[in-house]
Design brief:
Layout lengths: L1 H6 L3 E7 L2 E13 L4 E4 L2 E4 L1 E2 L2 H14 L5 E7 L6 E4 L12 E7 L2 E7 L5 E6 L4 E4 L3 H4 E5 L9 E7 L10
Parallel strand pairs: 2-5
Antiparallel strand pairs: 1-2, 2-6, 3-4, 6-13, 7-12, 8-11, 8-13, 9-10, 9-12
């Protein structure tokens, strides 16, 4: 976790919500095998080259999951006051029904899924070192969120390994 805090180029996230540009407290970083552009919340990021630490973690995650990944979106939540609203990761750049491996470091946090049709919810506690894999039609059928938890004062880093579809960026 210390290496990630030190060696990652963290930046406050930006989003356009109802036409208004918002700067979040949460910090993010976008890394990849190539300079993949990635657009979400109407903002585009260009991937930085994987660091030594990210490559080591990527290898371990791929061995554990049996999946392959070419990019990683990192989130730094300074405390439980910072969270993420309901969403699904269905951006056009991502491989359709591809796996997303979510690796957590630091504070334990609740992660919640909500079915898009039935509104059924499922909660999972993500502790330090936990690996959650979302794949197949998860993003099609479910929303997910990281609700705020004001009593948590420790930071949490979340690495979400993803696959950018190569055909979406043939020139890279």
């Amino acid at each position: 976790m210390e290496a990630l805090l030190t060696h990652i180029e963290w930046k406050n996230d930006e989003a356009v919500i109802y036409g208004k540009r918002i700067i979040t407290k949460r910090k993010v970083a976008w890394y990849g095998e190539k300079a993949f552009p990635y657009t979400y919340s109407k903002t585009t990021k260009l991937a930085l080259p994987f660091t030594k630490e990210l490559l080591e973690i990527q290898t371990a995650v791929e061995l554990e999951t049996g999946e392959t990944f070419n990019s990683c979106l990192l989130n730094l939540y300074h405390s439980g006051e910072e969270g993420m609203g309901w969403h699904s990761d269905a951006e056009k750049e991502l491989k359709k029904n591809g796996a997303i491996a979510s690796l957590s470091f630091g504070a334990e946090r609740k992660f919640v899924f909500k079915h898009k049709e039935t509104a059924e919810t499922v909660s999972v506690m993500l502790e330090h070192g936990s690996l959650l894999v979302m794949k197949d039609d998860t993003q099609t059928n479910w929303l997910h969120r990281l609700p705020p938890a004001k009593r948590i004062i420790q930071p949490r880093i979340n690495l979400t390994f993803r696959t950018i579809h190569p055909e979406k960026h043939p020139s890279i």
